[in-house]
Each structure stands twice: as C-alpha cells, then as structure tokens.
Amino acid sequence: MNEPKQNRPITERRLARMRGTLARRQPGLTVVIENVHDPHNVSAVLRSCDAVGAASAHLVYTIEEMPLIHSGVAASAQRWIDVHQHDDIDACYQALRGTGFSIYATELSHDAADFYELDLTRPTALVFGNETRGVSEDASRLADGRVTIPMMGMVESLNISVACAVSMFEASRQRRVAGMYDTTGWNEGELEERLREWLVRERRDPSVASSAFEAVVPRARNRYEFREE
Questions:
Q1: Domain of 41?
Q2: How far apart are CA 160 and CA 143, in angstroms?
Q3: pLDDT for the residue numbered 179
C-alpha cells in the first residue's frame, strides 16, 4: 500500500510571498481562450496572466481538443491561476456577466475599436481565438465590443500568446497607475481561503495560512530589474 504523501515544510519567506502575490491578484481581470490549438500558446497565455496578477482564465473548446498545459512554457503558472472550462461561448459569457465583467473580443475587423482606448481598470474579460480562424462568430457577436491592437507593419498579425501579453500588460499598466495593486480585491477571509488552496496545491500544510497575515509582505519582484551601479 502506498503511503500518503506528507506535507512539505514551507519557509516564512515563501509563505509571505504567496500571501503578497494573492493580495495583488486582480479578480476583475481575466482572459477567455477559445479553441486555441497549440498548447504552448495556451501555456504562455497563462504565464502572462500570472505575471500581471490576473486571478483566472476561461477555456472554451468546441472544435479543438482541450490542450495539455505545457508546464515548461507555463512555468507552473497554471497552479496559481483559477482555470475554468466551459461547454460553449454562451455559457462562458453568462458566467462572466454574472460576476460583473464586460467582454471584449480581440479581432482584426474594420469596426473593431482601438484596444488602447479601453478602460481596463473596470472588470474586463479579453477573448482570444484560434491561431488561424481567430475568435468565432458567436464569440464576436455576443461580446460587448470588438477591439484590435494597432500595428504599424506589413504583417497585421501577432501570435496569440504575444497579443495576450501585450494586452495584459497594458491592463497592468492602467491598474498600476490607478493604485489597484496597492489594495486587495478580496477581504481577509477570502485571502486566507485562497492561500489555503494554494498551500494544498503545493502539498504544504494549509493550517499555516493564518500565520501568513502576521508576516511582512515582500514587494513585487522582477528578476530583470535594472540596478544602478
């Protein structure tokens, strides 16, 4: 008989970092991934979501097979993002609107608005479609709006993972200016519950979650920071 896996120990620093990351999460920012074929693209999208603090992502697969998330490309981001699966785009949109989201489909069309004119400090869901076909007709028609990222080159196209990264970091920029990373979108009870979930995902002892609220929260990190000599 296999022995149950034991909870791994956790340092105070990592616990505080997990708590700080959760405190900066943006419940009002998410993406919808519709029938994206390449699992590497899906993994890269989730990595961008984690990087800007998006709390969730939504997957809709009606034509393509549900992808296997590539842990190498995602850098384990899927462990820190709430990934929701939906049977169709209508069910996805209903769930998002039920929690106050406005939905914008990204596409190249003559009537699509300039992406940079969006107020991304509001609860916003950005929809990204298949690498070849783009978003479906239903995803476009049922959205609250259609937006495009302005491009100045001959090739009016971005890889879906790049388009997502560009979009999400613009959302992050707007939210940083608005001070939205300085206050948490969840109350203390919700934060503790989510921290418990993260500890379970890491095979840590979830009972230590309450002690994280007594620790000093480290600031956001960036391994590519520039330092003055």
A1: 16-149+157-177
A2: 18
A3: 96
